[in-house]
């Protein structure tokens, strides 16, 4: 049971340091696919000393951990039953997800992947809800109530921004809409505290399609040789301040 909270503590540190975030979507012919959200904080491994002695000691050990939440719910059902109802619901929300965390001080590597399969692109909107459920886990009564706010707290069904996806076999769309301006501003105020650390971070989308890309609605995208993969990046803080900069339409070849 402690395994998930060890990974969780590492992810909290990653979220508030200079990271490269990537949204990777793989779509099959029938519209099903896989989504993987990744954070790469390898650059941070060179500045561990700045985090303080306790943080440095905690992160000096190599970690390579995978958590399949469907299995986790079965294996630790008795321990989970002792958590508060709210914590149980957060873990339950992760049921279809898998987490992979690697931290290797010797190789200066630190990254985190959260992934799941989907039957239809419309299900992708639940990704941010799952991310925030994981970020909000506390574990037990000894966990701090003052854990840092995830920079993704504004995303998802309960946040200020709703991100939705659609795919009809020819056109793929990603649409972000601010639905609560007041809540959005509050989330930005909290993120300002870590803006210096996140200022150099990028948010990168990597979309993989079963057919070649005919057109992409943003300038500056990069394509694979067969044009079935498109990559586009923006500043992470820019994306949080204006989520609509990643409103994207991709048209595939017939």
From TrEMBL:
Assigned keywords, A-Z: Signal
Signal peptide, first to last residue: 1-22
PROSITE patterns linked to this entry: PROKAR_LIPOPROTEIN
Keyword Signal: yes
Protein name stated in the entry: Lipoprotein
């Amino acid at each position: 049971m402690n395994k998930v909270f060890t990974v969780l503590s590492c992810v909290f540190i990653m979220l508030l340091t200079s990271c490269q975030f990537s949204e990777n979507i793989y779509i099959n012919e029938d519209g099903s696919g896989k989504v993987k959200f990744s954070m790469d904080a390898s650059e941070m491994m060179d500045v561990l000393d700045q985090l303080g002695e306790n943080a440095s000691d905690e992160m000096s050990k190599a970690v390579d951990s995978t958590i399949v939440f469907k299995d986790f719910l079965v294996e630790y059902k008795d321990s989970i039953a002792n958590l508060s109802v709210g914590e149980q619901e957060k873990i339950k929300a992760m049921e279809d997800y898998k987490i992979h965390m690697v931290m290797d001080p010797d190789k200066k590597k630190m990254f985190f992947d959260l992934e799941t399969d989907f039957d239809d692109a419309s299900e992708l909107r639940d990704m941010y809800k799952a991310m925030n459920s994981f970020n909000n886990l506390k574990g037990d009564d000894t966990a701090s109530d003052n854990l840092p706010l995830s920079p993704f707290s504004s995303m998802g069904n309960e946040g200020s921004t709703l991100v939705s996806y659609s795919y009809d076999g020819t056109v793929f769309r990603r649409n972000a809409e601010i639905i609560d301006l007041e809540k959005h501003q509050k989330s930005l105020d909290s993120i300002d505290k870590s803006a210096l650390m996140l200022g150099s971070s990028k948010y990168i989308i990597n979309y993989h399609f079963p057919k070649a890309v005919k057109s992409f609605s943003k300038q500056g995208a990069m394509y694979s040789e067969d044009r079935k993969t498109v990559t586009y990046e923006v500043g992470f803080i820019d994306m949080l301040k204006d989520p609509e900069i990643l409103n994207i339409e991709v048209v595939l070849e017939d």
